């Protein structure tokens, strides 16, 4: 079982299947189990072990499904560089941390990755690399499922030539 890039697509797309499966298992109590989704064999058999982002997402899927693939965890952990990063990239590092979260034996690796993200955070505006994509993934990695309950700090949003700034408070209902 797999998903295509678009609803009308007649062929499998690995990345679409990976992210659709992640979304379905992350839905918590309303989510589906990996066996119900049916993508497990496809995802594991088509994984390119050298693609750290895909490996991280697959690790997260397997963890959330109580079906940890220890060889995948070890492979991802072994690719961390001396500075705590993966590929010298905020997004890949954040995704790798997210993929290893919850794996108690890899706490030191996660902590080194978190330290890397903390060093890379822009102290003036709270972003990572002035990128919405990198900032979003870093916040997910650092706060995970508790992101909705976090005070993520001062932010500035530039929209159509106007800047709005203030403190983000995700507890604000």
Would you mind describing this structure in some detail?
A hairpin with a 2-residue loop joins β1 and β2. The protein starts with 13 loop residues before the first helix and ends in a 5-residue tail after the last strand. The C terminus is likely disordered. The chain contains eight helices and two strands; from the N terminus they run ααααααααββ. The radius of gyration is 17 Å and the shape is globular. α4 runs parallel beside α6 and α6 runs parallel beside α8. With 173 residues, the chain is mainly alpha-helical.
In DSSP terms (H or I, runs of 4 or more residues), the helix count works out at 8
N- to C-terminal separation? 39 Å
**Low-pLDDT ranges:** 167-173
Q: Work out the helicity level.
A: 40-55%
Entry keywords:
two-stranded antiparallel sheet; 8 helices; 173 residues; mainly alpha; 2 strands; 48% helix
Brief summary:
The protein is mainly alpha-helical. The protein has eight helices and two strands; from the N terminus they run ααααααααββ. Strands 1-2 form a two-stranded antiparallel sheet.
């Amino acid at each position: 079982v797999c998903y295509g890039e678009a609803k009308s697509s007649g062929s499998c797309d690995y990345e679409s299947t990976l992210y659709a499966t992640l979304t379905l298992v992350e839905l918590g109590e309303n989510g589906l189990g990996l066996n119900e989704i049916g993508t497990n064999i496809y995802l594991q058999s088509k994984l390119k072990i050298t693609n750290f982002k895909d490996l991280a997402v697959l690790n997260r899927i397997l963890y959330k499904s109580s079906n940890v693939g220890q060889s995948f965890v070890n492979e991802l952990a072994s690719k961390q560089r001396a500075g705590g990063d993966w590929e010298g990239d905020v997004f890949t590092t954040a995704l790798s941390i997210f993929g290893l979260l919850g794996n108690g034996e890899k706490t030191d690796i996660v902590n080194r990755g978190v330290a890397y993200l903390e060093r890379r955070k822009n102290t003036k505006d709270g972003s990572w690399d002035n990128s919405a994509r990198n900032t979003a993934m870093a916040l997910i990695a650092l706060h995970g499922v508790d992101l909705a309950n976090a005070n993520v700090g001062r932010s500035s949003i530039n929209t159509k030539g106007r800047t709005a700034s203030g403190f983000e408070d995700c507890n604000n209902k």
